[in-house]
Design goal:
Length: 556
């Protein structure tokens, strides 16, 4: 998908264009509107839209809305918004539910050819009869119903004469096939439930494995790209295309799904986190959803580049979270203004600085991108520094502020700590320092050196701000438990939610930031990249989400 890197899907497309199998390629991104998109979907989006772009083809956005119970208009709207935000525009927008009539007619073709039958076995019986990998399946007693009887029953299923679960339509393939998917799969089920698009028109709904190949063929999709869980379904996919006499013959191609270490990537589980209140919605910045990443402050470019860098292969090993973070740092490095923010403030008084004086200091907005210009920062007698930039009794190699030590205040002066003020509990509440006017930043002072540089904001002018710091939502153990015992997955998953995934602190920012708007991004000196939160920020008090820390060398 990288413009000039090759991959096996691209090679197939190149060959299909060269041999004349296709003149134009058409791909599709086919989400089921049963949740918000996550970063895994971004991979599918980048592959499908990216390949079509590269070969002057087209991409459809198709809602695979064949399961009315789980689907919702809210999801449809969010999916469209997320695809566009990622930077893609579909040529055609489709809903699988618009093909219900055609799908029904294609099922009738199967029945007429003796290739589908109405079965009265229960769901459990069908599962039992299916057999196992080592045991052939058993034929249903209803398998030999006549074409006439099947046509009549199927029509009555459609007309609503039967209860949910009392009958299904099954493809008649091979109950002894070594591929379990080919053992007479169910293709229609009865479900008396309203659909968000078709309302009460239908009470039978097609199963995914039947619907999907037909949707692709109806839309003349040339390359139907999906993840490797569907590899075993490919013979069935081709069988439906063939036996339903579809004019177009799309080719299913599988690639390995994207997994990120320590990250839950399943709409079902993400929905549970939302429904049970572990997060404040699908767009909570801790969620690996596109909307969560957006609110946290990730950029479309960072997500696209990350996904491309994971490559297209058949395998699906998990990549590190750090890889995603790398790409957002890269993307923001030259564009995010630098600024100073104090997250856990400690008052510092510069005792030899004149009481009523305020001076404006010059600072680069982004030293890596001088075109961004300069900003001005007020400086006066009282400032805030970070609590952990002071220690009364420091260990060796602590180069920040402690009694008797001198440090540089970023963009300002050297200060030296002379006195520590404590409350009645012995808690440090104020530091008294003196500054040396000779040492002003940019003045070329070379008289002596200090080892530490700390950030600060002017106490009188600072704007109060809230900072939200994130840790992984799910602890490592979750994935371990899942790997160790797949069947207990449901029980254990929520038990591994990290209780410390969100830390909220109240601090201060530079006064020149009074006009920040939601989604504005900054690099706070030493703290990392932050994004103005779109839900909680107000004009009086901005709220900043930490996108990612800097690779910090300041830690003790
Ligand atoms: P989930 O299991 O999270 O619910 P899904 O596959 O059921 O995902 P769909 O709405 O069917 O969700 O997905 C739309 C497309 O996105 C499919 O073609 C699917 O293969 C692809 N997709 C989903 N998850 C990933 C992933 N982790 N990596 C790559 N592609 C993915
Ligand atoms: Mg799916
Ligand atoms: Mg799913």
């Amino acid at each position: 998908m990288e413009q000039n890197s090759s991959n096996f899907i691209k090679n197939i497309i190149i060959e299909d264009l060269e041999t004349g199998k296709h003149k134009n390629i058409i791909t599709r991104f086919p989400p089921e509107p049963n949740g918000y998109l996550h970063i895994g979907h971004a991979k599918s989006i980048v592959i499908n839209f990216g390949l079509a772009d590269e070969f002057n083809g087209r991409t459809h956005l198709r809602f695979d809305d064949t399961n009315p119970l789980k689907e919702d208009q809210e999801y449809v709207d969010s999916i469209k918004a997320d695809v566009q935000w990622l930077g893609y525009e579909w040529e055609e927008l489709h809903f699988a539910s618009n093909y219900f009539e055609e799908m029904y007619n294609r099922a009738v073709i199967l029945i007429k050819k003796g290739k589908a039958y109405v079965d009265d076995l229960s769901q459990e019986e069908i599962r039992e009869y299916r057999g196992t990998l080592t045991e052939p399946g058993k034929e249903s007693p209803y398998r030999e119903r006549s074409v006439e009887e099947n046509l009549d029953l199927f029509e009555r299923m459609r007309n609503g004469e039967f209860e949910n679960g009392s009958k299904v339509l099954r493809a008649k393939i091979d109950m002894a096939s070594p591929n379990l998917n080919m053992r007479d799969p169910v293709i229609y089920r009865i479900s008396h439930v309203s659909h968000h698009n078709t309302g009460d028109k239908w009470c039978i709904y097609p199963m995914y494995s039947f619907a999907h190949p037909l949707e692709d063929a109806i839309e003349d999709i040339t390359h139907s790209i999906c993840t490797t869980e569907f590899e075993d379904q490919r013979p069935l996919y081709n069988w439906f295309v063939e036996e339903c006499e579809m004019e177009s013959k799309p080719q299913q191609i599988e690639f390995g799904r994207l997994n990120i270490e320590n990250t839950v990537m399943s709409k079902r589980k993400l929905k549970q986190l939302v429904d049970e209140g572990f997060v404040d919605g699908w767009d909570d910045p801790r969620m690996p959803t596109i909307s969560g990443l957006r609110r946290k402050g990730f950029t479309p470019g960072a997500i696209r580049e990350f996904v491309k860098a994971t490559g297209i292969t058949k395998g699906s090993g998990a990549v590190e979270e750090a890889m995603l973070e790398h790409f957002v740092r890269e993307d923001l490095k030259l564009t995010a203004p630098r600024t100073m923010g104090v997250l856990n403030p400690l008052k510092l008084v510069i005792t030899n600085y004149p009481e009523d004086q305020v001076e404006m200091l010059d600072a680069e907005i982004n030293p890596e991108n001088p075109d961004m210009g300069m900003r001005q920062i007020p400086f006066s007698r009282e400032i805030y520094i970070e609590q952990d930039d002071f220690m009364e009794d420091p260990p060796k190699k602590y180069f920040r502020l402690f009694p008797g030590n001198e440090v540089r205040l970023k963009h300002a002066y050297f200060i030296k700590c002379n006195e520590v003020i404590k409350d009645e509990n012995g808690q440090v509440i104020e530091i008294h320092c003196t500054y040396d006017p000779e040492t002003k930043s940019g003045s070329g002072f070379t008289g002596r050196k200090v080892k530490g540089t700390i950030h600060w904001v002017d106490a009188k002018h600072a704007i109060p701000a809230e900072f939200r710091l994130y840790e992984p939502l799910i602890l490592d153990a979750e994935l371990e438990a899942e790997a160790a015992d797949d069947s207990s997955e449901d029980k254990t998953f929520l038990d591994y939610v990290n209780p410390k995934s969100l830390e909220i602190v109240q601090g201060f920012i530079e006064p020149n930031m009074e006009d920040v708007k939601p989604q504005d991004k900054f690099q706070f000196f030493r703290h990392g990249y932050f994004n103005v939160d779109s839900k909680h920020s107000t004009a009086e008090k901005p709220v900043f989400n930490r996108i990612v820390s800097l690779k910090s060398s300041f830690k003790l």
